[in-house]
Specification:
- The strands form three sheets. The chain has a seven-stranded mixed sheet. A six-stranded parallel sheet has the order 3-2-1-4-5-6, sandwiched between helices.
- The protein contains 14 helices and 15 strands.
- β5, α5 and β6 form a beta-alpha-beta unit.
- It starts with a strand and ends with a helix.
- The chain is of the alpha/beta class and about 350 residues long.
- α4 packs parallel to α5, α5 packs antiparallel against α13 and α13 packs across α14.
- It is about 40% helix and about 25% strand.
- The radius of gyration is 20 Å and the shape is globular.
- The protein folds into two domains: about 110 residues, 3-Layer(aba) Sandwich (Rossmann fold); about 180 residues, Dihydrodipicolinate Reductase, domain 2.
Length: about 350
């Protein structure tokens, strides 16, 4: 069996640099042989990590004869066309989420990778976080009995730049989509209905761009359970990432990661460290784990664990949440999917 896979990376922004550095130093059985970014200065990062084949043209990597798999870290509008081009050239694909902001385009990409018989894995990195993985395993093993209630808290330490908001697709499709995927993953059940309430409470400029920064989303699952997700673009105490599942046989939860576990008490009360600053720190190990799984799946000839269908369903939930908020009513997932296939 082949024991090394040659990887090309497209996009060397923040997350692209994380993946490249991880593959170069911490990912088993893989090497980066080509990299591309439209910004010439960012190619120096690749060169410093030993990548000789670099270009400002993404197609150079996506079609390079030595590249066996690509990691796509470019802006969302490029994900589907780059996925299709890579698939047509026989490359396996790891793509950052979301695959696209429309279900129609996700289906186009899904068909392309199926026709090319290549693997497409999406970067829902929270599935590979040790804390969330433990909760998922306990639920799937029946240790909480029949799941009744899911609670997910996901709050950023600071809102994004307004320029980012303009092209992000909005809170539901950009930020909460991780939580929607996590809900399906942990509960091992599809979401059937969504009801969302949302407001602009953090930054009025976000509202001026037609987006919201604070939301509560209620989910109904096919297995009868219910869930609630709360999102905020700003938590003054740091990056708040928690999950809880309550069921007929018990409850499991995971709290925030902190730089240390010290506790200090004085006459004013108890004190402990704030949560890790943001997603790059909080999910540092998850980023390593997900690429390791992608590589090992390809080398073993196995299906990747997070595919285009998972991206499609998370996007459908996000679209339902947005529609629910705008129309102030519950929206069934079937309503979103049937509108696409009609």
């Amino acid at each position: 069996m082949k024991n090394t896979i040659k990887i090309g990376i497209v996009g060397l922004g923040r997350i692209g640099q994380i993946h490249l550095a991880n593959i170069a130093t911490r990912v088993k059985n893989a090497e980066v042989v080509a990299a591309a970014d439209i910004t010439e200065s960012l190619l120096d990062f690749a060169r410093r990590h030993g990548v000789e084949n670099v270009s400002t043209n993404p197609e150079y990597v996506l079609t390079h004869p030595d590249v066996e798999a690509v990691v796509i870290c470019t802006p969302t509008p490029t994900h589907v066309p780059y996925t299709i081009l890579a698939a047509q050239h026989g490359k396996h694909i790891f793509c950052e989420k979301p695959l696209d902001l429309s279900i129609e385009q996700i289906l186009v990409a899904k068909e392309a990778v199926e026709m090319a018989n290549v693997q497409l894995m999406l970067g829902f990195n929270r599935r590979f976080d040790a804390n969330f993985l433990k909760v998922k395993e306990m639920v799937h093993e029946g240790l909480v009995g029949d799941p009744h209630i899911l609670k997910i808290t996901s709050r950023d330490p600071n809102p994004p730049q307004i320029e980012y908001v303009k092209s992000s697709g909005g809170l539901f499709l950009d930020m909460a989509i991780h939580d929607f995927d996590m809900a399906r993953y942990v509960m091992n059940s599809e979401v059937t209905e969504v009801y969302a309430k949302a407001k602009v409470l953090v930054d009025p400029r976000i509202g001026a761009e037609g987006d919201i920064d604070t939301a509560i989303t209620t989910l109904t699952f096919a297995n009868g359970a219910i869930g609630v997700i709360d999102n905020s673009r700003k938590a003054v105490y740091g990056y708040d990432q928690r999950i809880e599942v309550f069921g007929s046989g018990g409850m499991t939860q995971t709290k925030n990661n902190t730089p240390d576990t010290h506790e200090y008490y004085n006459d004013k009360g108890g004190h402990l460290s704030l949560p890790l600053n943001f997603f790059l720190e909080r999910y540092a190990e998850a980023y390593v784990n997900e690429i390791n799984v992608f590589v090992s799946s390809i080398l073993a000839g196995e299906n990747v664990p997070v595919n285009a269908h998972d991206g499609l369903m998370a996007t459908a939930i996000a679209m339902a949440a947005k529609q629910s908020y705008m129309e102030d009513r519950p929206v069934k997932i079937e309503e979103i999917l049937s509108a696409i296939t009609a």
